[in-house]
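Standup notes
- DV: blocked on the single-chain target, sequence here:
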Amino acid sequence: MKKVMVCGCGAQGSTICRKLDEEPLIEEIICADHDLKAAENVCRLMKKGTPVMVDASDLEAIKKAAQGCELLVNVMPLNFGANMLRAAMDLGCCYQDLSACENLPECMDVDEYDRWVAGIRYMYENYGKVFADNDTTAIIGTGSAPGMMCVMARKCVNELDECDTINMMVYEGVEAKRFLPFWWSTDVALADMQEDAFALEDGKIIRTKPFSRKIWRKWPEYDMHPVMLCEHAHDEPIYVGFNSEKYFKGCRNAYFKYGGVGIRFSEPLYRAGLLSKKEEEVDGHKIIPRDLILKHLPMAPKDPEEIKEIIDEGIIADGGAFVIEAYGKKEGKDIMVELHLSSPGLIESYEKAKMTGEMYLTGQGAFLYTKLFVNDLIDQKGLISSDMLDDRQVDQYVKWAEELGITYDMQIKEDVTPDDLRG
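- DV (later): unblocked, structure below
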């Protein structure tokens, strides 16, 4: 693989571009963005980058920019996903997405709640066939969560003979003196905060409300007090629901729980209706509440000089937790496998790679999937989600992660059954 296009040069896309620049098998990285300056800025930090302005709402513009590319990496907001997928299929190249796009054809009569679940199924079955016929591969959900979370969940489940429940949890604990509620795309963050979430319960994918079903955990990372986590819109429970038998040893229940600075900032806005996408009239002016909030939020930092400014201004907290609990049976005993992922925080990430901690974990977590492509280690044809790597690919991914200082600690505890994760 010699030529790759990364579409979206924000915090995560710029990280993938910079890491690809280090790969000896890559000759050129097309760094594409609707803002040419953003693409040029990341290319200044690279040797093999070519900046290109691309309007991702224009399918033909994407295809023109990606001519000759063997892999298209999509780091754009969800609403551009269908175009990005179509471009990869039309060009006959491989595809990688950090999430799962809103791609279900509008002509399909599906309830609004079901569109996300039905959309992922549609991608597996219909788009998957196109990629397979092209002898190419698409992988969706390849950031930190989903993505690295899926790889680590597989590591946990492999310790069990049979799995009953998987609980996946992320706690964001990084806080600067500067106002920065999110360290990744504010657009994506607010979209996730207001969407209904999903859980797998008793073998069925169900809808749950954002910020509901709160649980508390007391971890070594936060030994002074328990932390709160709640329901949050993420792909992982849907993936487990579809792939339970083949990859998760018959798992019947799966949850994604999220907590920390972003949740504390967003929950009051959600309850006040300020994350709504519906237009309303206020004193004779038509507004969309979410757009107003979004306009006043700072973008996630990605430029090394800006990151250094934030650190120099002062950091209130520089922590976080990334934890998986897998419950099931091993040799007839009730077992809980608990995995804690460790990754460099904000200050260490800047010292190591001139990145934020979020860029380091999510951007490089995504890059490791790209690295599998680049090194011809993806054998599957068609469309798969990030939980569907084979064991050899999982082990290689984990080895590369360890080389980046992203490691895990796993404990196996006997006679432990799930808490009330339903809240």
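- Follow-up: Residues 115-133 form the longest helix (19 residues).
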